[in-house]
Each structure stands twice: as structure tokens, then as C-alpha cells.
Design a protein that fits this description.
The chain is α/β, with parallel strands linked by helices. It has 16 helices and 13 strands. The radius of gyration is 20 Å and the shape is globular.
Length: about 325
């Protein structure tokens, strides 16, 4: 990677620091709505925001205009969650682990090997499970869910040592998401899990502070990890749900017609996000061979055996943890 996210924001100067204003049917008297996310301007999050913005502008006849702040311009996920809950930011897209401190029940999704595939995860989140957690987030988190984006498949990548079996992972220092479920999962696998903010990862890899990390194939390229890492492993340890949220302060200030317009825009933009992520995932895997990255498919039977009891550490300490976990498992079919 040529630059970190912070470097990119600094390099692009005022243009990057400003919001992305979409050329929709905005009016001079339109209400500006600030939405932020942490990913690149070419990412699935950005395209999700853009499709949502177009739908909102159309549904409200230009009364509302989204200003999209990408690549952590408004802060990291936790900082933006706090701002949206406090009413100083209107909306955000964030991953589930970042919300765990606010909505404890969401830790259940950090159980290893919870889903078998992206398709299965999306199907589960589109049904009772997704609605149940949306209700919990609205009730406990002060956030109004406007759609579950595609679950994101987290796979291990490493700088110089391939992981062809679980034995190869022993003692390996991996940056992982700052979530108890991720830490316990990788401890059970024998790795040395090292939580740190995502924005620090590129430098940590470059300076050999960590041996690798986990991310989705599309982000592996968008954040330039291919410049430092030789191996990408289809380990499927975690599938991470992401959501689009409006803050309660912002939401309560909308009239009924505007709420309907934003809700309808969410329903339109969410399946589009799923399509974009699927295409980006496929392109990411295809680009690895072109970039000289070896894609490794370990036998995961030992991995699943090693982590089969990790969820038990959380089911009794999370609010309704066992019931929520069992509901997810039942919905998988």
C-alpha cells in the first residue's frame, strides 16, 4: 500500500476533506444529511451510500441531500457511533463489532464459523434474525437501522509465512478486530491475536509488528495490503454483518413522510449493496493471481474443532445469549 487511509486523506487535501456531494435533484433549500463510513471511495460502503442518497433525493423530491464522508473523515467507527448517538452526526455505516460496546448482544455474531457462506449469512440476516437484532439496536443503541448490508467474509492474510494447516498458525501474531469473540477465536486456534485499530494495520504489517491479519478480498486490494503480503487464506473464520443507521435525534426530527422516504431508500439500497459486495469479492479473488498472491484453501475441519466451544464463553454472559445464538443456528437451516 502506498499510503494509509490517514495519508490518503491528507494527500488529497481539501477535496478529500470535503463531503462527497452527489449530483441528485437537490434543491437550494434542501436539508443536508451527513453520513460517514470508514472504507475507500471505491468501496461497497460508498456505493451503498450513493444508491441510498439517490433514492432519498428522489423519494423526497430533493428535500434531503446526503453528504457522504468516506475513509474515516468523520472518525473511526466507534467515534462515529458516539457522534450519531449524540446527534452531532446524522447517519453512518458500521460493522457489527464496533457496536458491541453499545449493544452487548451483538457479540454473538463474533462467534467463529457462525455462518457457512456469505449467501447463508445474508439470508439469515434478511429474516427474523435480522429483524430481532434491528429491534434490539433501536431499543438499546439509540440507532435506527435502515438495512443490513452484505455480511463480509473475514479471511487471514500473511506477509511471509503461508498457513497451510492449523499447525502453521501457532504463535502467529495477527491483527484482529477489537472484539472479545475475535480474540477468543484466534486464541483457540493457537494464534497470538493482537487487537488494534484498522487504520494502523498497514504500518504494523510494514514494520513487522504483526505477521498478518484478516479482511475481505475486496478490502485486501482497496487498502493495498497486496503490496506487503504474499498469502491469502480462505479461512472463513468470521462473517461480519454491517448496517446502515440513522441517529435517533436525527430520526425524531423527520416528519412521517420523510421517515417513509428514508425507510424505502434503505430497502432499495440494501440489495444493491449485496450485489456490489459479491462482485467486489469475486474480483478480489481473481486479482490475487494477477498480483502474485497465493490463495490457499486450508482444510478447516481442525479449525472448527478447535473453536467449537468458543461461543459458550459468551452465551451465558450476553443478554439472552443462548436464545439468540440458537435462533441464528436454527435460521441457518
Amino acid at each position: 500500500m502506498v499510503m494509509t487511509r490517514r495519508d490518503m486523506v491528507r494527500l488529497t487535501g481539501a477535496a478529500a476533506a470535503a463531503a462527497t456531494l452527489l449530483p441528485t435533484a437537490a434543491r437550494a433549500d434542501s436539508t443536508k444529511v451527513r453520513i460517514g463510513h470508514t472504507l475507500a471511495p471505491t468501496s461497497e460502503y460508498q456505493k451503498w451510500c450513493e444508491r441510498f442518497s439517490e433514492a432519498v433525493a428522489k423519494n423526497t423530491n430533493g428535500r434531503y441531500e446526503l453528504q457522504i464522508y468516506n475513509q474515516s473523515q468523520l472518525g473511526g467507527e466507534i467515534q462515529m457511533i458516539q457522534a450519531v448517538r449524540a446527534g452531532t452526526q446524522d447517519m453512518l455505516i458500521t460493522s457489527q463489532p464496533a457496536l458491541e460496546a453499545t449493544v452487548k448482544s451483538l457479540e454473538v455474531f463474533s462467534s467463529p464459523f457462525l455462518f457457512d457462506s456469505i449467501e447463508q449469512g445474508n439470508r439469515v440476516m434478511a429474516g427474523k434474525v435480522g429483524q430481532t437484532f434491528a429491534d434490539i439496536i433501536a431499543r438499546e443503541g439509540g440507532l435506527i437501522p435502515l438495512g443490513w448490508g452484505s455480511v463480509q467474509e473475514r479471511n487471514i492474510f500473511t506477509t511471509s509465512k503461508p498457513v497451510r494447516s492449523l499447525a502453521d498458525l501457532q504463535g502467529m501474531k495477527l491483527r484482529i478486530i477489537q472484539s472479545p469473540g475475535y480474540v477468543e477465536a484466534y486464541r483457540a486456534l493457537g494464534a497470538n491475536p493482537t487487537p488494534m485499530p484498522y487504520g494502523q494495520l498497514y504500518l504494523a504489517l510494514k514494520e513487522k509488528v504483526v505477521d498478518g491479519a484478516d479482511t475481505s478480498p475486496d478490502q485486501f486490494f482497496m487498502d493495498k495490503f497486496a503490496e506487503l503480503c504474499k498469502y491469502y487464506h480462505l479461512t472463513h473464520v468470521h462473517y461480519l454483518p454491517a448496517g446502515m443507521y440513522a441517529g435517533k435525534t436525527f430520526w425524531d426530527g423527520l416528519d412521517a413522510a420523510a421517515k417513509d422516504a428514508f425507510t424505502a431508500a434503505g430497502k432499495l439500497a440494501t440489495p444493491y449493496n449485496h450485489q456490489v459486495y459479491a462482485a467486489d469479492y469475486k474480483a478480489g479473488i481473481a486479482n490475487m493471481s494477477k498480483a502474485g498472491i497465493e490463495v490457499i484453501k486450508p482444510d478447516l475441519r481442525d479449525w472448527k474443532r478447535a473453536t467449537k466451544d468458543v461461543y459458550k464463553k459468551f452465551e451465558d454472559v450476553l443478554p439472552n445469549g443462548k436464545q439468540l445464538y440458537d435462533m441464528i443456528v436454527a435460521a441457518r437451516g
